[in-house]
């Protein structure tokens, strides 16, 4: 083989190797809960493919594994949590690995009952079920306080616990349970405060089927989260841009009809 031809071939192979490496780097694995997070990620897959990013969505039904697997670098990021949950997780795990890429949407939290038609019908000594993770239990208590069912020491404290209840006029029994189980035990309690993603999965309508619901000004915007080592990567920025695009805004408005609200 002539020397010039060898050089040309070597240069071509080098370019192919670089291109292959670049293609491999433009692959993202994102952990998400099913509704609406995984649905939104599936919606933007074709958009990302056109932009040179291959997206794999790994679906989880709990609130622990997506963050753990992000920290362990088993996935590139996650899409399921809100700011207060992220801060609570960081404190508990004593790390700052996870980093916010973008705010995507708000899932208004709501109270549901199959036994009662209004808040006023909830009986004295009734049972109220709320999520057991600290950020969402505090969120539930704030919403109960807004309905006048309890009074909190500090009505604006998003980290409130049951110890912060200073008045419980109906002597309600508040049970803290795994968030994903709440729709399944709804017929066993007088009231359950359920995250909208789990409510939608259980075919509950947050707008028409709840006794009360947060408004769109809720501070609990759901986040696309990466790690400090990839939060500024081109692929993650492309995913953030896709999830905050006009197309996704319209998809949210059309599909969820107010049960999920764009936060961008």
Tell me about this structure.
Residues 1-24 form the signal peptide. Helix content is 37%, strand content 23%. The protein has two domains: 10-107 and 219-262, 3-Layer(aba) Sandwich (D-Maltodextrin-Binding Protein, domain 2); 110-213, Periplasmic binding protein-like II (D-Maltodextrin-Binding Protein, domain 2, 3-Layer(aba) Sandwich), CATH 3.40.190. The strands form three sheets. A six-stranded mixed sheet has the order 2-1-3-12-4-13, sandwiched between helices. The chain has a five-stranded mixed sheet with strand order 9-6-10-5-11. The chain starts with a helix and ends with a strand. Helix 2 packs across helix 7 (234-243). With 264 residues, it is α/β, with parallel strands linked by helices. The protein has helices at 3-25, 34-50, 65-71, 83-93, 134-146, 196-201, 234-243, 246-256; strands spanning 27-32, 54-59, 77-82, 98-106, 110-112, 127-131, 151-152, 165-167, 173-177, 191-194, 212-213, 221-227, 261-262.
Instruction: Classify the helix fraction into a percent range.
Output: 25-40%
First-last Cα distance: 59 Å
Backbone shape: globular
* Arithmetic mean pLDDT: 90
Quote the CATH topology of the largest domain. Answer: D-Maltodextrin-Binding Protein, domain 2
Please specify the SSE layout and strand pairing.
Blueprint: H1 3-25, E1 27-32, H2 34-50, E2 54-59, H3 65-71, E3 77-82, H4 83-93, E4 98-106, E5 110-112, E6 127-131, H5 134-146, E7 151-152, E8 165-167, E9 173-177, E10 191-194, H6 196-201, E11 212-213, E12 221-227, H7 234-243, H8 246-256, E13 261-262
Parallel strand pairs: 1-2, 1-3, 6-9, 6-10
Antiparallel strand pairs: 3-12, 4-12, 4-13, 5-10, 5-11, 7-8
InterPro entries: Lipoprotein_NlpA
Membrane topology: Lipid-anchor
Pfam families: Lipoprotein_9
């Amino acid at each position: 083989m002539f020397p010039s031809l060898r050089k040309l071939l070597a240069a071509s192979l080098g370019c192919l190797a670089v291109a292959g490496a670049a293609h491999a780097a433009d692959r993202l694995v994102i952990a998400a809960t099913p509704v609406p997070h995984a649905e939104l990620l599936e919606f933007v897959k074709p958009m990302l493919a056109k932009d040179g990013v291959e997206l794999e969505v790994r679906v989880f039904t709990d609130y622990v594994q997506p963050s753990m697997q992000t920290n362990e670098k088993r996935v590139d990021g996650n899409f399921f949590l809100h700011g207060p949950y992220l801060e609570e997780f960081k404190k508990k795990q004593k790390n700052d690995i996870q980093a916010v890429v973008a705010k995507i949407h708000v899932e208004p939290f709501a109270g549901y009952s199959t036994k009662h038609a209004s808040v006023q019908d909830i009986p004295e000594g009734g049972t109220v079920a709320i999520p057991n993770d600290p950020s969402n239990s505090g969120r539930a208590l704030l919403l109960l306080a807004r309905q006048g069912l309890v009074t909190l020491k500090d009505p604006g404290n998003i980290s409130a616990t049951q110890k912060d209840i200073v008045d419980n006029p109906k002597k309600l029994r508040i049970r803290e349970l795994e968030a994903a189980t709440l729709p399944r035990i709804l017929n066993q309690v007088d009231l359950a405060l359920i995250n909208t993603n789990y409510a939608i999965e259980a075919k509950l309508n947050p707008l028409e089927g709840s006794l009360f619901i947060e408004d769109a000004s809720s501070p609990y915007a759901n986040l696309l989260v990466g790690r400090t080592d990839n939060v500024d990567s081109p692929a993650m920025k492309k995913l953030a841009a896709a999830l905050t695009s006009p197309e996704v805004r319209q998809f949210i408005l059309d599909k969820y009809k107010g049960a999920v609200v764009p936060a961008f």
